[in-house]
């Protein structure tokens, strides 16, 4: 069998048989060398499937070739080839080998004379490049195929090993594998805020025709736009994250990796991938073509890509990406702190999460006092622009600082959760009489289970070495109210917020020996089998109270 281009029209198993036959009947060294060359080309040249997306892996600087032919007897017909680079730019070409129908007929009949051999050599030289592209964009070639022409696709990556997808179809009557893009595939930015960007885009014709099988998915990142979903997947994986197939955009129930967070709300799927290189979000929003991206950072440039995805095939088409910068974070209002004056800062966890206070030192030694009233708060203190303290506040916290006269201190109070938070702040010279009373080691209230009766409970709490006033309050509470009552308790509020009927008693006590600075109290006149919430308030010389941690105790049902 003399090798000629017609063998590419044969099924693969016949090609292999032809090579084996050639190896037996061609013992000469030159023929063997020719055979080895043809065999190498064969294994590096594959028949491209019609109507199916093929993934092609490319090695750096090694070209890879694919061929395609029409079915026997098919007349002139249009065809399209779509190539999607998934990483670096590649170069690809469409080459055509033109041969006469009479030659192909003779070749297929097995005519091996010398004249046909020369025809084969002449035919093999009739190769021309009809299309060439270099880049990383999704590119489609449309042409007209004939049964008397053989096409070859050649792919080359010169930067590094990579992979691409190739889709060939000669059937233009059925639906498209890839969703269609509108005539204007741009994404418009119609609004920007401090933490949001609103996008809109024109509908894909595929959405209007096959709404149940098509959806839009948005990719958000801080590095650059992606020209295909395939390229986005590759980039995210190379950053150290593992992804489910097709970025889980088809809503398939793939398990997420530890670096991923999935959020499903209002029929929208959001997948957040976190890596050292930044955060990448994928959001699928069905068929609506306007979307406001939430929870962005102020003063940050983001890149947005919209993909229209076929849920049945996972094939996708990319709109032209865009970018936008969120607005700068507004400068927080700065409140002046004055010596000895107490300011209560209330923070809305959803709207205003931070508050700034400024103080110009009139003394070398000063003391900041923070009393957490509700929620969770973090305090950050700078002196002349340099950080001197930063921590989460729990209960009562003092910061004693030393500096120079007229040093400028900036205090930033920030809520660490989305619920409302509040904190009291005071600054005073270090030698001033403290605003808040001296506190014991613990502000916990203890109850004694063995001393409980049907109409009384006994509680105890720690005192200090300083004589102070302690007031006890109680109120009935239902079991389903316990968590809410403890969660929403304002630890800065004093007895003035309580009803007079809730007051049990007030007493003074102290002990020089801290080991004995403990007091107990038995509260009588309670109802059997009832839950009670007990509070103790400590008053210092300034009159500002500190509330102990509330304690819930239930009286015995039977005695």
Tell me the strand percentage band: 35-45%
Instruction: Supply Rg.
Output: 39 Å
Kindly identify the CATH topology of the largest domain: Immunoglobulin-like
Q: What is the general shape?
A: elongated
Unreliable parts: 1-28, 100-125, 242-267
Q: Give the overall average pLDDT.
A: 79
CATH homology superfamily of the largest domain: Immunoglobulins
Number of helices: 7
CATH architecture of the largest domain: Sandwich
Helix content: 10-25%
CATH class of the largest domain, named Mainly Beta
User: Any idea how many domains?
Assistant: 4
Protein name: Protein NDNF
Keywords: Glycoprotein, Neurogenesis, Repeat, Secreted, Signal
Subcellular location: Secreted
Pfam families: NDNF, NDNF_C, NDNF_N
């Amino acid at each position: 069998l003399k090798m000629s281009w017609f063998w590419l029209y044969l099924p693969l198993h016949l090609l292999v048989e032809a090579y084996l036959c050639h190896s037996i009947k061609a013992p000469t060294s030159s023929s063997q060398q020719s055979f080895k060359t043809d065999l190498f080309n064969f294994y590096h040249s594959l028949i491209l499937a019609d109507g199916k997306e093929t993934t092609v892996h490319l090695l750096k600087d090694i070209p890879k070739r694919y061929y395609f032919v029409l079915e026997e007897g098919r007349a002139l017909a249009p065809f399209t080839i779509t190539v999607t680079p998934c990483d670096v730019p590649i170069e690809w070409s469409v080459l055509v080998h033109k041969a006469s129908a009479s030659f192909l007929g003779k070749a297929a009949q097995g005519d091996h004379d010398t004249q046909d051999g020369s025809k084969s050599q002449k035919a093999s030289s009739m190769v021309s490049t009809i299309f060439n592209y270099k880049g990383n964009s999704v590119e489609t070639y449309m042409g007209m195929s004939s049964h008397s022409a053989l096409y070859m696709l050649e792919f080359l990556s010169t930067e590094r090993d990579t992979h691409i997808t190739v889709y060939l179809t000669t059937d233009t009557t059925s639906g498209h594998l890839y969703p269609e893009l509108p005539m204007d595939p741009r994404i418009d930015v119609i609004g920007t805020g401090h933490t949001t960007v609103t996008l809109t885009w024109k509908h894909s014709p595929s959405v209007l025709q096959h709404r149940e099988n098509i959806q839009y998915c948005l990719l958000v990142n801080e590095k650059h736009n992606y020209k295909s979903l395939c390229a986005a997947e590759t980039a995210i994986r190379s950053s150290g994250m593992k992804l489910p197939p097709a970025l889980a955009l088809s809503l398939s129930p793939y398990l997420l990796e530890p670096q991923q967070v999935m959020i499903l709300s209002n029929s929208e799927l959001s997948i957040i991938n976190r890596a050292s290189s930044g955060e990448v979000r994928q959001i699928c929003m069905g068929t609506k073509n306007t979307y406001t991206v939430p929870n962005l950072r102020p003063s940050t440039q983001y890149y947005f890509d919209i993909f229209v995805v076929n849920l049945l095939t996972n094939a996708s088409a990319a709109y032209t990406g865009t970018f936008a910068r969120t607005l700068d974070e507004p400068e927080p209002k700065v409140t002046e702190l004055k010596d000895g004056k107490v300011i209560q800062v209330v923070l809305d966890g959803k709207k205003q999460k931070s508050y700034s206070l400024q103080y110009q030192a009139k003394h070398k030694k000063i003391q900041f006092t923070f009393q957490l009233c509700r929620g969770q708060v973090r305090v950050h203190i700078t002196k002349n622009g340099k950080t001197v303290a930063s921590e989460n506040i729990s209960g009562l916290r003092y910061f004693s600082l030393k500096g120079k006269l007229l040093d400028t201190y900036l205090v930033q109070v920030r809520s660490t959760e989305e619920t409302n938070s509040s904190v009291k702040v005071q600054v005073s010279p270090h030698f001033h009489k403290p605003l808040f009373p001296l506190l014991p080691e613990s502000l916990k209230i203890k109850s004694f289970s063995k001393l409980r009766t049907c109409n009384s409970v006994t509680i105890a709490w720690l005192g200090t070495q300083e004589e102070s006033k302690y007031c006890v309050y109680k109120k009935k509470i239902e079991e389903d109210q316990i968590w809410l009552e403890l969660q929403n308790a304002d630890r800065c509020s004093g007895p003035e917020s309580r009803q007079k009927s809730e007051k049990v008693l007030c007493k003074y006590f102290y002990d020089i020996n801290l080991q004995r600075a403990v007091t107990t109290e038995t509260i009588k006149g309670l109802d059997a089998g009832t839950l009670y919430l007990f509070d103790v308030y400590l008053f210092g010389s300034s009159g500002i109270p500190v509330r102990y941690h509330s304690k819930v105790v239930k009286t015995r049902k039977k005695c």
